[in-house]
């Protein structure tokens, strides 16, 4: 995806949105909600390192996998936080979900969304019979350009399953990059490889 973004296929980049969200599957006493162990949606769904202390860590570095994905794909560092919205857990210092908007260089605005309790919406939409089916986790990044957008589904574990969708002038092309044959700098590999 990074190569596609750099190639200019969607023109000048104006934004990027990353999402790491899973349906509610952990109890309130789960390790993921223990502050002393780095709990919370932002820390668990995304931390690059163990935070030394709240005073020592900058807010930009606390935003984890989703922000790391944006930083990697855009090959740029955030320059500031525009807005953060947090849905707290029962414990005051733990977040159940977070949305953040931040500035990137060259007038690019990006956002991230991390959530431990996505709304319980069926994978098959409003069909009443299928409402009992769980919602699937979402690990996605969408890069927006002046001429279109590129979306990578499942950036977290692309070796298991993924697809890249390029939308440009109402035309959509979907590719997979297991072997690299659709990329500008192909890598060696076989379509049946898991990585």
Detailed description of the structure:
By secondary structure, this protein is mainly β. It has a single domain (2-148), classed as Dihydrodipicolinate Reductase, domain 2, CATH 3.30.360.10. Helix content is 11%, strand content 34%. It contains three helices and eight strands. Strand 2 (80-88) and strand 3 (95-104) form a beta hairpin. The longest helix is centred in the middle third of the chain and has 11 residues, at 64-74. The protein is globular, with a radius of gyration of 18 Å. Residues 48-63 have low confidence and may be disordered.
Key structural traits:
195 residues; mainly beta; single chain; Dihydrodipicolinate Reductase, domain 2; eight-stranded mixed β-sheet
Number of strands: 8
Low-confidence stretches: 48-63
Shape by Cα distribution: globular
- Number of separate structural domains: 1
Helix content: 10-25%
- What is the CATH superfamily classification? Dihydrodipicolinate Reductase, domain 2
- Report Rg: 18 Å
**Which whole number gives the mean pLDDT?**
79
Q: In terms of structural class, how would the helical and strand content be classed?
A: mainly beta
Per DSSP, what share of the residues sits in E-state strands of 2 or more residues?
A: 25-35%
Let me know the largest β-sheet.
Answer: 8 strands, mixed
Overview in brief:
With 195 residues, the chain is mainly beta. The protein has helices at 2-7, 41-44, 64-74, and strands spanning 13-23, 80-88, 95-104, 108-118, 138-145, 148-153, 163-168, 171-175. It contains three helices and eight strands; from the N terminus they run αβααβββββββ.
């Amino acid at each position: 995806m990074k190569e596609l973004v750099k190639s200019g296929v969607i023109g000048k980049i104006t934004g990027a949105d990353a999402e790491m969200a899973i349906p509610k599957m952990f109890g309130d006493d789960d390790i993921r909600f223990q502050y002393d162990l780095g709990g919370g949606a932002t820390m668990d769904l995304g931390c690059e390192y163990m935070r030394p202390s709240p005073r020592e860590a900058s807010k930009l570095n606390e935003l984890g996998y989703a922000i790391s994905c944006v930083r990697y794909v855009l090959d740029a560092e955030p320059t500031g936080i525009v807005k953060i919205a947090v849905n707290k857990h029962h414990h005051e210092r733990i977040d159940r979900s977070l949305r953040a908007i931040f500035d990137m260089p060259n007038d690019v605005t990006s956002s991230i969304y991390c959530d431990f309790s996505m709304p319980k919406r069926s994978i098959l939409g409003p069909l009443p019979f299928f409402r009992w089916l769980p919602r699937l986790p979402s690990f996605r990044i969408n890069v927006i350009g002046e001429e279109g957008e590129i979306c990578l589904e499942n950036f977290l574990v692309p070796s298991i399953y993924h697809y890249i969708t390029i939308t440009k002038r109402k035309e959509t092309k979907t590719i997979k990059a297991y072997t690299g044959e659709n990329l500008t700098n192909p890598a060696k590999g076989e379509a049946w490889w898991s990585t």
